[in-house]
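Morning!

This is the sequence you dropped in the shared folder:
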Amino acid sequence: MTIIKQEDFIQSIADAFQYISYFHPKDFIDAMTEAWEKEENPAAKDAMAQILVNSRMCAQGHRPICQDTGIAVVFLKVGMNVQWDAQLSIQDMVDEGVRRAYLNSDNKLRASVLRDPAGKRQNTKDNTPAVVHMQLVPGNKVEVTCAAKGGGSENKSKLAMLNPSDSIVDWVLKTIPTMGAGWCPPGILGIGIGGTPEKAMLMAKESLMGHVDIHDLQAKAKSAQELTAIESLRLELYEKVNALGIGAQGLGGLSTVLDVKILDYPTHAASLPIAMIPNCAATRHIEFELDGSGPVQLEAPKMSDWPDIAYDGGSGKKVNLNTLTKEEANTWKHGDVLLLSGKMLTGRDAAHKRLVDMLNKGEQLPIDLTNRVIYYVGPVDPVREEVVGPAGPTTATRMDKFTRQLLEQTGLLGMVGKAERGQVAIDAIKDNKAVYLMAVGGAAYLVSKAIKKATVLAFPELGMEAIYEFEVEDMPVTVAVDAQGISVHQIAPKQWQAKIGIIPVAAD
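The structure's back. Tokens below.
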């Protein structure tokens, strides 16, 4: 009988979450590199270059791949012959491991978990509790899978109860474009088919823990070996989802997914549940076993696993934020690459709500937004010599409902965030001759190197959601919505879908 000691289990969980915060899986790096090499759209290729350079920097510096260090998800398969030498429950042991990982002073991770989600939404400060899924299985080992799942991709999860005669492929191809680019493609698509609604969702999540192996399936198909129905479905979806032309960061291109993973389960004769969950460019998971011999020993990858890519910010137009005027911003066109220098403000959901509430009450704001640019970000706390920790953009559409009021009542000039804007925000940007700039999601550590100073100006009690003033130098962004209301995210994917030519582009 195997005896698993409490401390060994806790420390293994802690080490695993630290490990995945800065090490991408090798299969993911290989797949992203291949996608980067074959990409024909310069904007998408640049975005993937930033992601790959960021990944290597994080591996070297042991700092988070993304500022959203995720909600902790743990899958456990506990052998029925295992005995625990522990005083804590399994949930409590997992939570203690997560707590140690996220509060590690040498690589502190961002605490994003809130208690009382329908009420006060108070940060737990240590990213606990984790979400734990456990099975009892034959054997004398504990199989552990740890994943850190970012909110941007989790928020794009989809569930449908199809009729048995409905087409799974049609549903996926109809649904993917509605997800936008907030899940930071190219990534991995997890799909669960069958069972019950909750079983389908769980399978979709668990499928994402598998290794990237779509090329093995392609080779199997080319050699005329017989494919299972699920294997054939994976290949069809991989080809057709990429043919949508969404591309890296939604900028249009050849690669939207690096793999499509599917798990299925028997279901009711009247039902066809299907769930879909994407994994973003910050794909973070690791699997290991505990056999009673001590905590897990995780081997660091080799730096040669990463491609030798340099990123110097490209040839973007240099912009001085300290002297920026509406007239200058109105000369920018969608798709333009800019290098921002000077002072910018930060703010995301909680700060935006505070500002709007103050405006509605006629109160004076704690900051002057006139002709300023605000960056949608919740940075990781700095360690060692850092000014700020990894500070990549958060999903911009969450701020759409606040956009018009801030533009019209404060003199705000521009916004920086991740992925596309919804039509309500685009209309507000056009009406107010403002601009929306896109930074690359999944390149948080790289972005942070452009930040030379960070000062909290307002709402310090909000933690990472406080309003900061960043002083930046040559921070790379792309004009995603220009002052005429033209959105690169609305135009580019259709252009690339037409260019790829597998799926006809629907008429507007």
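Headline: The chain is about 30% helix and 25% strand.

More detail when I'm at my desk.
O.
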